[in-house]
Amino acid sequence: MKNRYYRFFREDKKALVLAFDHASHGDAWVDPAKVIRGAREGGMDGILTTYGVINNFRKEIGKMGVMLRMDVLGSALGKKDPILGQAMESPYTVEDALRLGADGVMTMGIIGCNYDGDNVRYIAKVASDCDKYGLICASEVLPNGFSSDPEDRSVRAMNVACRLGAEVGLDIVKTAFVEPVEEFKKIVENCYTDVLALGGAKVDDDRAVLQNAKDAMDAGCKGLMIGRNVWGHSNIAGMARALGAVVHGNATVDEAMKELEK
What we know:
Layout: H1 5-8, E1 15-20, H2 32-41, E2 46-49, H3 51-56, H4 58-61, E3 65-69, H5 94-100, E4 104-111, H6 116-133, E5 136-143, H7 155-167, E6 172-175, H8 181-189, E7 194-198, H9 206-218, E8 223-226, H10 228-231, H11 236-249, H12 253-259
């Protein structure tokens, strides 16, 4: 058993992780210290972030579980599609993550694209390397990236994504929750490792964010890895508390909404 598991997952075996790796392409106007302090105040369990943030904001991160984003896909000024236009790879090693003091790593795991085989071998190799050092290995496994094609979010496609993640040795599969709940529940049950739902695009509807979180938990997900809808919120700590009420407290959406009012 990897002891670092409990840096992210509480005794209820559920986790609420801040995804704060969106600035990896450089196009961001946000203060990491403010974001991390708000997430900690709101009770988030861990953080997924970049090499630079881990290196420079250790005090703010404190005792949160720390996951290094391994992929460096290019800058926001690049002309190539960073997700589908290249095979996934990392300039960092698992040893780098260990030296940073990270508890785990996260890779992109884009399947079904022209680089399908390369990407699957990439995440499998990282998973194997993590086992050598007892680090948690997670991957964002998505059919054709952030595709809007219904076929890429079908029951079969999402089942392939989640089950593949388990088969190559991941400790955590991060993927998109798709409705209906009962169908996604079958997918989660068929994946014998932990599934965390990603938070998705920024929306200006707190109730919708919390409803999506509730549906994902009802489908059997072990928690959330959520970014923009927390760090882009005017009340970071409040949204973190509200999501924590859903993930750890099994709160209704109405109950969770009250956390935003505190």
